[in-house]
Amino acid sequence: MASSYTLTTSTSFTITHARHMAAKVAADLKRMQRHYGKPSDAAIANYEEEVVQLLKAGYLGTVSYGYKRDGDWIEPTLRYTAQDLMGSSGTDDDPGKIKPWADISGATFYSYLTYSAAWSNLTSDQRESFEKSLPITRGGASEPGINGYVEQDRTYSAGGKALGRSSVRSFS
Amino acid sequence: MKAENSDFRFKSFMVELILAKLCDDGLDFSDYPDALQHFFTYVARTRMRDKIVFTDCYSASKVGTFTEPVQIIDPVNEVNNVSRLYTGANADLIVDAALEAGDAIDSALYAPTKQETVRYWQKVFGPSFQG
Fold first, then answer.
1. For a tag site, which of A43, A139, B43, B107 has the least CB within 10 Å?
2. Interface pTM (ipTM) of the complex?
């Protein structure tokens, strides 16, 4: 007699998973502050909580933090892209590896966020309600260009989801 | 570090002089994790290429010109670079280690669990550190 077996696994993504990944983003931002002066501790706390809430709800597309000069991201800039690992576990690197020697003269700190497809499925009322729960109010803006090149260098994962980190590198 | 890489060298005297310089500059060492982070950040930011001079026993203008990549000048002898045996490669290894230690301290600062916090600190102090 033939037998068949079905193995079903499910990983529910919890606030604990979101906090695990967001803490690594916060540590990266603290490293940026140590080497370049910004963002402030208060801003890091707000960015961390924003990532927690967006990850938990599944609304995060990408979020970038870094320095902008003449409308372009320059080094140091970090971009995190939310990824669904479809239930599998992924690499979970330690934060850091931010080089302290980039030239940020004439540049200002900036952050830019995009939403996931799930966000676009919400009604405007639902979006407004969710946005009120976030510690940061973001306005509309065009995405800065990139002065340099982008290198994928870290992955933070938990609970079947991941944040892939890319870093802007200077050509010089 | 020495066990992992035979080219790694960093005498405690050099560490003491760098810490003395940071203290002279007015950095607050009352909080141990912050003090450690000040040290690692300074080493990483300067790449160990900033000349360190003390002016307790001579004026800075009397300090000579040196050609070595690392220049930590003897606090009691302005013509003696106590770090003259350190090569650029030695300095780069110290800078890499300082960056890794700084990463670990800030990661510990934001880690959401004690287990993760201790794991990060173990990257700085070794696996016997228990928190």
1. A139
2. 0.91
